[in-house]
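User: I'm putting together a teaching handout on how sequence relates to shape, and I'd like one worked example. Could you take Tyrosine recombinase from Microbacterium soli, show the sequence you're using, and then write out its predicted structure as tokens right after it?

Assistant: Happy to. First the sequence, then the structure tokens directly below it.
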Amino acid sequence: MHSNDDLLTLFTEYQRSQDLSENTIRNRRSVLTSLAKTLPSTLHEADVFSLRRFMGQEGISKATKRTYRVAIRAFYRFLQEEGLRDDDPSTRLPMIQVPRGEARPFTPDQVDAMLTSGAYKRTRAMILLGYRQGFRVSQIARVHGDDLDLLSMTIVTIGKGRKERRLPLHPVIAELSASMPPHSWWFPARKDPTRHMQPSSVTGLITKAKLRAGITDPHLTPHSLRHSFGTELVEHGVDIRVVQELMTHEDLSTTQIYTRVSDRMKTAGIIALPSRPIPQHSGRRAA
């Protein structure tokens, strides 16, 4: 019988052969490691009741439960398809309905506070890449000087699904590039400068800048800079399809989650409707 470590290693190799991102692989392994700690035996012997018990723990949000379910379903489907297990207990896990998310952007004033409250140059660059280029922390971490083309004002990045995209370069990022390494990683790993920093390190540095700026809202995270990017594009009248392309979303419905409609825009929408006279009488007598 395979040990938990053996199974997780085999599953990791399988996912890499699918060309899944390292972040996805790492997150799934974390879920399965946590699951293993709750089981009376091994992952290989788990039954549906144990899986449901793990997903039904108190204090876990619906979004987290859905993440757990995706990881568990992928793992046990792999075991069955590879002949490592006869059945797939995860097929009887309940579906998790998660309410549609809402945008949680930083305000411009909050971003200014993050940039002027003692953050070092490297952290300020990270904040601007999220705020004005709309990058995820994984994209920020791997920015390389050679990704930028200042003649065409474009930048190459790797988005979700490891898809390479060439996007318009925001003038602020072009200006920023003058003080960043032109032919190497902008954010090299401390122990090995030939490699880029881990996304988790980017998250940690931006979070510190947020707290230093006195922003304590737990719903505002480094990813909220991306929400600000999308929201401000809409605020400035950019077509939602253009916003979708700039945010490299496959589905327009995902873009809509990231773009909060401001009160100003709602008011402008109401005012845009033409006025009309208010009848002083019902007209019933004439009828």
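A couple of points you could highlight for students: The chain has a mean pLDDT of 89. The domain at 4-92 is CATH 1.10.150.130 (DNA polymerase; domain 1).
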